[in-house]
Amino acid sequence: MYISVCYDRHMIRLFHRFLEFLFPRRCLGCKKSGTFLCRACLEAIPTHKTQHCPVCLRESLLGKICETCSGWTLDGLFVVAPYSQKSLLQTCIKTMKYGAAHSLCRILGAWMANHWTPIDLSDDILIVPVPLYPLREKSRGYNQAELLARQVGQPQHLIRRIRNTVPQAQLSRKDRLENLKNSFDISSKRDLLNKKIILVDDVCSTGATLNECARVLRAAGARKIWGLVLARG
Questions:
Q1: Comparing 71-75, 137-141, 149-153, 222-226, which segment has the lowest mean pLDDT?
Q2: How many domains does the chain have?
Q3: Is 135 helix (H, G, I), strand (E, B) or coil?
Q4: pLDDT band at residue 2, thresholds of 50, 70 and 90?
Q5: How far apart are CA 110 and CA 106, in angstroms?
Q6: Residue 20 belongs to some domain of the structure
C-alpha cells in the first residue's frame, strides 16, 4: 500500500510539472514570465515587523504566549505576514495549495525561513510539518507544509493525521476545535522526551490545527513546541 501511494504521488507530481511546461509560469503579481512569484513582488509583500501573543495579540518576543493567557498548548506562534483577503500573499498560498504550483512552496518556504528568528540553533530542534490526511495528500500530490518545512530544515514526520476531517476554512471557530479532536497521533517511535519542536504550516486562523498537533507531541514528552506559519488571518 505504501509503495502504491508513493508511486501515485510521484505520477501526480510529474503530471503537474508537465502542466507547468505546457503553461509557462507567470508571476502572480506583475505577470512577468518565468516564475510564479518574482523577487520584486515577493519583497513587496507586507510582513510583521513585530510578533504578538497569539491569544491576546499583545506584542511578544517571537510570538511567545503571555503567562496570563491560556487555552493554547503551543508555547508560541511566529507569523511571517498577515493573511489579508484578496492580497497577493493569499493568491500565492491558494495557488500553492490548489494550483499544483510546487515551485511556490520553495519560494515561500525560503521567504519564511529568512524572516524567522529561531529560538536557538541547537541540534535538538525538530522541524515538523503539519500532516495532511493520506488521501488528501495523494490527490494533491504533495503536502505544502512539508515542502515549506524543507526550506527551514530537515522535516521530521513525527505525527500523522488519522481522520479525514472537514476543511477548517469551512467551519466556525467552535466547530474547528471540535472538528480536529483526536485527528492526530504519533507516527514515530523516536524519543521525544524534552525535545524542542517547530510545527510548520502555511496558514493559521484559530490555531486549532497547530494546537491539536502540539497536544499529541506534548503527551509524547516534547518540552517546547512553537508554531511557524506564513500567515495568520
A1: 137-141
A2: 1
A3: helix
A4: very low
A5: 6
A6: no
Q: Are β-strands 76-82 and 224-232 bridged in parallel, bridged antiparallel, or unpaired? A: parallel
Res 76 pLDDT > 60: yes
d(CA 222, CA 171): 29
Query: How does the average pLDDT of the chain come out, rounded?
Result: 86
Its domain, for residue 121, covers 47-232
Q: Look up the CATH number of the domain holding residue 168.
A: 3.40.50
Which amino acid, 172?
S
In the structure grid, which three cell numbers stand for residue 176, read together?
A: 474547528
Q: What pLDDT, on the 0 to 100 scale, is given for residue 1?
A: 46
Name the residue among 51, 50, 55, 77 with its Cα closest to residue 66: 55
Q: Which three cell numbers stand for residue 132?
A: 495532511
Distance separating alpha carbons of residues 106 and 204, to the nearest angstrom: 19
CA distance 55 to 139: 34
CA-to-CA dists, residue 209 to 120, 130, 200, angstroms: 24, 8, 11
Q: Is residue 69 part of a domain?
A: yes
Asked if the structure places residue 23 within a domain, the reply is no
Inside any domain, residue 40: no
| Total-model pTM | 0.85
